[in-house]
Design goal:
The protein is elongated and about 75 Å long. It has a two-stranded antiparallel sheet. It has a domain at about 40-110. It has helices at about 40-65, 65-115, and strands spanning about 25-30, 35. A hairpin with a 7-residue loop joins strand 1 and strand 2. The protein is mainly alpha-helical and about 120 residues long.
Length: about 120
């Protein structure tokens, strides 16, 4: 109508990118203790599956029975175990970094409040 003010359009509100799961869906509660992050399947396969398959391929190669397959199989087993060990050492290093960061945060809290934070 000519005498009425024009309708105001609702402003577009951006809600950010759509999420496939809730923000804490990657965390799982434990029966006793803190919430620990869930290991994604791709990461698990990279850490454990590939080294296991490499070791299995080495065992199969050694089962063939020729001298070349015995040496090649032993090399595959060694490569698979070395891959797993490197991944394990990396995780140990990362856990140590996280523990140091948590200790530093606790020390800063102690300096501000005069008591050690609850865990």
């Amino acid at each position: 109508m000519p005498g009425e003010p024009p309708e105001r359009a609702r402003p577009h509100v951006s809600r950010g990118p759509a999420r496939a799961r809730p923000p804490r869906a990657h965390l799982r509660p434990r029966a006793h203790g803190p919430i620990v992050p869930r290991t994604p399947l791709v990461l698990w396969v990279t850490r454990h599956g590939l080294p296991a398959l490499t070791v299995l391929a080495g065992i199969v190669a050694m089962a063939v029975g020729t001298d070349a397959s015995l040496i090649g199989g032993a090399a595959l087993v060694g490569a698979g175990l070395a891959t797993w060990l490197i991944a394990w050492l990396f995780r140990v290093g990362v856990d140590g970094d996280q523990a140091r960061d948590a200790e530093e945060r606790a020390r800063r809290y102690f300096e501000r409040h005069g008591r050690w934070p609850e865990t």
